[in-house]
Predict the structure.
Amino acid sequence: MVSALREAPLIRVCLAYFTSGFNTAAVDHEADGSTNNGIFQINSRRWCRNLTPNVPNVCQMYCSDLLNPNLKDTVICAMKITQEPQGLGYWEAWRHHCQGKDLTEWVDGCDF
């Protein structure tokens, strides 16, 4: 069984790999005009502010802030998302590639 201390990094590493391939500058343009931004591909429809006015901006930041290689703001935003009712289920990559899987291989050899 994975300890709680190891669980959070496992989740973030798996999610980052399957959403952006660990690319902090990744931007994916959706058909509805929104964008998925940064290493966790956080969407502009709800979570961050892009050029579109009147979006909820739950994370209280510009989407461009999510493209910074310093992941502090990105992790804070992702943590806000996981506290929402849908939690990690917000990410399709989590549902298809990480949820219910043994993620320990992602951090083999790491000391926590």
